[in-house]
Amino acid sequence: MRASKCNVNFVLDRRRDKESKAPIVENVPINMDFTFKGKRLRFFTGYRIDVSKWIDAKKEDPTTGVIIHVQQVKKNAVNRSGETSSEINRRLVKLKETITQIYEEAKILFKEVTIDYLRDELRNRLAEVKREDTPKGPTLFDIYEKYINEVKVSPGRKKSLNSTKNHFERFSETLKDPITFENLSPSLIDQFFNYLINDAKNPDIYKDLPANKRPREKSLNTIAGNLKRLRAFLEWCTLSQNGGYLIVSPFKEYKIPSEEYGRPIYLKKEERDLLFNAIINDERLSRVRDIFVFQCLIGCRFGDLVKLTKGNIVNGAIEYIPRKTKDERPVSVRVPLSPKAKELIGRYNLPDGSLFPYITDQRYNDYIKELFQVVELDRVVTRLNPLTREEEKVPLYEIASSHMARRTFVGTLHKSNVKNEIIASMSGHTKDSKAFARYYDIDEETQDEIINTYLD
């Protein structure tokens, strides 16, 4: 029988010192990454080594001429615990042979191969745990799943909660012992923080995964968001009505890094109108233009826009309850339709009553960037780079997205001195929203206007 495709790699943890931000290069954990069918098991080998004592290189076998990937401790090297290269390398060979054997046997016997199955079976065969010692009852991640299913939040929020859970579960797989309620600590949260920073920085780990399954480099704002969602779950676990799985959340003694956002960037009114009036020969981009400009005119999130139908039009206005607030604090939003908005709706007559043809959010965002380039919306703007948190100059089309349409709606009205509570009633923001407060910053054009009027 032909072997099912799988791959084994040994990699050193890539972490940075929290204070200096310099890479940690001494006494670094050695992990085994086993990838199969777009999934990855990360397993701590039980050994650590200095980066300078590790080999990760492709070499030619002098006997066969075959190129082999060498991942092992350098000859005669000893780690901080006094363990020799021979001892550690034997362990690595044993791990590779054992995990591959487990996987192949499972496929032959038509067993469902999951990460949990592989990890448990590997530990059993290596005599690291005994079956009778396996903890009974729900695990931390079982409770995490229960929390996500029970908490009353929007579908988009649930998607984010699932993403955080998956990150935390993958992080758990890199540790010698799985995460439990008993071993949670501020130190463990800090390790998770470092994991999120470095997870996407070693492409070799994920080379066998489909591109859409590989982790992307995360901004500090994204990481802070993940930590806040994890904190919400762990604080939920401290409540007696939810089971009281935790006495105290580790976040009580852990400070989450603050999120930083630059001034919101949006289209000027004349740029929006240029887009509205542009002659676009490409039918696909013409549809995207119609959707984007309509979004600029009613200010809804894209997730709400794709749900709108003619039934949402009441007395010349769009009325809907934003999905983000539906399960948390239901707010009814009403936005009168301008003549331009009515014209855009009138261009389509879809059988299911939808206002516009359906498109996925990813394609929509990709096409918006392409659209901006076609109509030459290339004004250079200053933004805060989400990864580096440094200011940078970029053309408008590089950062164009569906959310820019929402920002254009809010920014245009705010700049026209419309009262904040009126804007918020149509955008669905709360009056104390941090995102809404960002529009209070004075934009460059207003600054130029003031100087030219009063100082020139």
UniProtKB/TrEMBL annotation:
Keywords: DNA integration, DNA recombination, DNA-binding. Residues 138-238 form the Core-binding (CB) domain. Belongs to the 'phage' integrase family. Residues 262-452 form the Tyr recombinase domain. It comes from the Bacteria. GO terms for molecular function: DNA binding. One of its GO terms (biological process) is DNA integration. PANTHER family: PHAGE INTEGRASE-RELATED, PROPHAGE INTEGRASE INTD-RELATED. CDD domains: INTN1_C_like (cd01185). This is Phage integrase SAM-like domain-containing protein. The keyword DNA-binding applies. SUPFAM superfamilies: DNA breaking-rejoining enzymes.
